[in-house]
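Sequence, please.
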C-alpha cells in the first residue's frame, strides 16, 4: 500500500522493521507469560502429595487460554469429588447393612450356643466347635467393618489385663481342652489405658491363632505380662508350627495367608491385619517373632500415659 502511494523505500523498510519487532516482542511476551503459568502449574504439582489439590494452587489466569486450562481442571476435579462422595455414600450404606446383618445373625448363633450349654448331651462336640468358629468369624467381620471408624466407638478407661485374660480363658476353654493344649497365664495385677471391648477382641484373635496353628503334640500357650520403663508388655506365646521367615514380614498385611494359611488350614488373612489396625488406632504397638516349627510370640506394648484421659 505504501508503494501505491509512492512512499520512499527507506520508510517502507522502517515501518516493516517496526512491525516485525512488535510482532516478535508480542510473541516473546506471550511465551514468557505462558511459560510462567505452566511452570508454576508443574512446580506446584510436583510438591503436592495429593495431586487433586492442584486446582487450589493454580495462579490467577491472565489469558483466555489459561482460563480454559483452570476451568477445565476445576470441572474435572469437581466431577471426581462428586463421584467419590457418591461412592463413599454407597460404601457407607453397604457397611451399615452388613453390620446390621451381622447383629441379626449373632442372635440365632447366641441362641444355639445357649441351647448347647443347657443341653450338653444333645449336641456333639464337633457341632459346638463349629458353632464357636461361626461366632468368632461373625465377630471378626463385625470388628473389621467397624475398624475404619473405630475411634468413634472407643471408650478409654483403666483396663485390668488379668480380668480380660480371665474372660478370654473361659471363652476359649472348650477349644483349649478339646485340642489338648497346655494353657498357662502369668499376669500380675496390671492396669492399662485402653478400650476393654476392643482389646478383648484383639487378644482373642491372638489366642485363636495360637489354637489354630498349634503343635501336633505337646501344644502349649503361655500368656504373660509385665511392666518395664513406664510400659506394659503383654505376650501371647505358643510352641506351634511357627511362621516361615519369608512370610514373617507380611503377616500384618491385608488378606495375606502365607504358607501356613495355604497348607495347614483355611485362612482369611484378616485376623492379624485387624489386630495391627486396631492397635494402631488404640495407640498400642504390636510386634511378632517366630521360628518355623518352633514358636510364635506376639507382643502388645502399652504406653502408660494420660493421653486418652485428656
Amino acid at each position: 500500500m505504501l508503494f501505491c502511494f509512492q512512499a520512499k523505500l527507506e520508510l517502507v523498510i522502517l515501518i516493516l522493521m517496526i512491525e516485525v519487532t512488535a510482532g516478535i516482542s508480542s510473541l516473546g511476551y506471550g511465551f514468557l507469560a505462558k511459560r510462567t503459568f505452566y511452570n508454576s502449574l508443574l512446580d506446584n504439582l510436583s510438591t503436592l502429595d495429593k495431586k487433586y489439590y492442584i486446582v487450589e494452587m493454580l495462579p490467577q489466569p491472565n489469558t483466555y487460554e489459561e482460563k480454559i486450562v483452570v476451568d477445565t481442571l476445576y470441572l474435572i476435579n469437581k466431577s471426581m469429588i462428586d463421584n467419590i462422595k457418591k461412592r463413599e455414600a454407597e460404601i457407607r450404606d453397604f457397611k451399615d447393612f452388613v453390620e446390621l446383618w451381622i447383629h441379626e445373625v449373632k442372635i440365632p448363633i447366641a441362641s444355639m450356643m445357649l441351647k448347647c450349654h443347657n443341653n450338653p448331651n444333645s449336641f456333639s462336640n464337633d457341632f459346638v466347635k463349629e458353632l464357636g468358629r461361626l461366632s468368632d468369624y461373625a465377630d471378626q467381620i463385625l470388628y473389621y467393618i467397624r475398624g475404619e471408624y473405630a475411634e468413634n466407638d472407643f471408650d478409654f478407661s483403666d483396663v485390668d489385663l488379668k480380668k480380660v485374660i480371665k474372660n478370654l480363658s473361659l471363652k476359649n476353654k472348650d477349644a483349649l481342652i478339646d485340642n489338648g493344649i497346655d494353657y498357662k497365664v502369668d499376669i500380675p495385677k496390671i492396669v492399662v489405658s485402653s478400650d476393654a471391648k476392643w482389646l478383648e477382641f484383639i487378644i482373642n484373635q491372638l489366642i485363636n491363632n495360637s489354637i489354630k496353628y498349634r503343635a501336633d503334640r505337646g501344644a502349649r500357650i503361655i500368656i504373660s505380662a509385665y511392666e518395664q520403663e513406664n510400659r506394659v508388655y503383654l505376650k501371647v506365646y505358643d510352641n506351634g508350627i511357627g511362621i516361615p521367615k519369608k512370610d514373617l514380614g507380611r503377616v500384618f498385611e491385608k488378606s495375606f495367608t502365607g504358607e501356613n494359611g495355604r497348607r495347614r488350614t483355611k485362612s482369611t488373612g484378616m485376623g492379624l491385619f485387624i489386630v495391627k489396625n486396631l492397635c494402631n488406632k488404640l495407640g498400642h504397638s504390636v510386634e511378632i517373632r517366630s521360628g518355623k516349627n518352633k514358636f510364635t510370640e506376639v507382643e502388645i506394648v502399652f504406653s502408660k500415659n494420660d493421653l486418652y484421659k485428656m
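The longest helix spans residues 64-118.
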